[in-house]
């Protein structure tokens, strides 16, 4: 993998949240204020969610790089899945003051790999939040067909410049667009999304207008 080991990548991604949790634990030792304790508890939860997000991505990166992806077929409860995604990234929506609207057009349960679907959605929506304007709405839509299903994620923000549109799925690629980032990332999210979609024998397309609307559309077969 490039010139970084997985251990080095994990250290870069996890040192900051682990330090924050340690400092938060020290703050808990010197306060008896219930409001302060609750606030610190929420901060710790955010950092733990961040750690889980980073570990999950690094784990999938290692599996992708070494051709070790394995399919685990499950019945998908989309409502439960999307609620977990939204809970895990709720701190990001608060920073940008962004709303996420879910529109689900489905009639039956469908089968797929739940963990891979979670990873696809959490990375795609986190990416949309990162590059959205403040106080906007991200739309997430699920359409179910006879033998496939489709996810659409739509946001308003900086958009994707034409000259970098062929690079956004590259490993470690990060646009140098002076955006004020709310996540410490390594440019892995869309790379992982693309590889998981390919592994599931699906397709991913996007349409983007600079300083306008960006739409990602993922089509996956029912397994």
TrEMBL record:
The EC number of this protein is 2.7.13.3
Catalysed reactions listed for this entry: ATP + protein L-histidine = ADP + protein N-phospho-L-histidine
Q: Any idea which GO molecular function terms this record carries?
A: protein histidine kinase activity
Q: Is Kinase found in the keyword set?
A: yes
Name a biological process GO annotation.
Answer: phosphorelay signal transduction system
Q: Which SUPFAM superfamilies match?
A: ATPase domain of HSP90 chaperone/DNA topoisomerase II/histidine kinase
Q: Which domain of life is it from?
A: Bacteria
| Kinase recorded as keyword | yes
Domain Histidine kinase, first and last residues per copy: 9-223
Q: What is the recorded name of this protein?
A: histidine kinase
Its lineage opens with: Bacteria, Pseudomonadati, Campylobacterota, Epsilonproteobacteria, Campylobacterales
